[in-house]
Amino acid sequence: MLIIDLHLNGKIVVIVGAGNEALKRIKLLENEECHIIVIGEKPHSEISKLSRTKKITLKKIKLTSSLFLKKYKPFLVIVSTTDNHLNQKIVQTAKKMKILSYASDSPESSDISYLSLIDIKKTIKVAISTGGSSPIMAKKIKSKTEKCLEKNISNQDIHLIKIQKFARSESKKFISTQVERKKFLYVLMNDKRVKELLKDRKYKPIQTIIKKMVKNWQ
């Protein structure tokens, strides 16, 4: 099993079904900046609310086939209806069309797995997986791991990640090779001035230092 982080920004994700299970999947996708289309005849009240606030697109229809895949051509389709036969029909059609698919009632036939995800200040994500063997144990281990991470990851670590993101962006403007950019980022991380400014939460001066350092990098 290969654990990856899908980049869904700007992609179309279709969720078939509009009940509790669909709502869980929507909540996991809320911060992904993807276009979420929900198809279901009787939507959950929260799903209807999300539709009214334009956070998702809701299609109040009863599906009987997988033809909608040709219309929307999603990057990912998540199937969560109570009709097992329809769920499998959609998954099989998606596979033929090279569309990633997930069926709530049949994870083993799906292209992706949902992991127990720990999200630390919307900056660090840690996934716990048992390879589908025990979702209950994955949640239990997640609870233990989450407490440990919260104790050991400081606000300074979070800000350093954001600084590194800024530095990576700046380095691409002036440093041509990936090897040299990597060296620059390591030097920056150990720079005494940056460390001192980071302690005092002076982020703007750090950005100024980064801009000077990257221009003078040889």
Secondary-structure map with pairings?
Layout: E1 12-16, H1 20-29, E2 35-39, H2 45-52, E3 57-59, H3 68-72, E4 76-79, H4 84-96, E5 100-103, E6 116-120, E7 124-128, H5 135-152, H6 155-174, H7 178-189, H8 192-199, H9 203-215
Parallel strand pairs: 1-2, 1-4, 2-3, 4-5
Antiparallel strand pairs: 6-7
Helix pairs in contact: 6-7, 6-9, 8-9
Q: Overview of this structure, please?
A:
The protein has 218 residues and is α/β, with parallel strands linked by helices. It folds into three domains: 1-114, Rossmann fold (3-Layer(aba) Sandwich), CATH 3.40.50; 116-146, no CATH class; 156-215. 49% of the residues lie in helices and 14% in strands. The chain is built from nine helices and seven strands. The strands form two sheets. The protein has a five-stranded parallel β-sheet with strand order 3-2-1-4-5, with helices on both faces. Strands 6-7 form a two-stranded antiparallel sheet. Helix 4 links the parallel strand 4 and strand 5 (100-103). Helix 6 packs antiparallel against helix 7 (178-189), helix 6 (155-174) packs parallel to helix 9 and helix 8 packs antiparallel against helix 9.
Shape: elongated
> Mean of the pLDDT scores?
92
Kindly report the name of the CATH homologous superfamily of the largest domain: NAD(P)-binding Rossmann-like Domain
Would you list the SSEs in sequence order as H and E?
EHEHEHEHEEEHHHHH
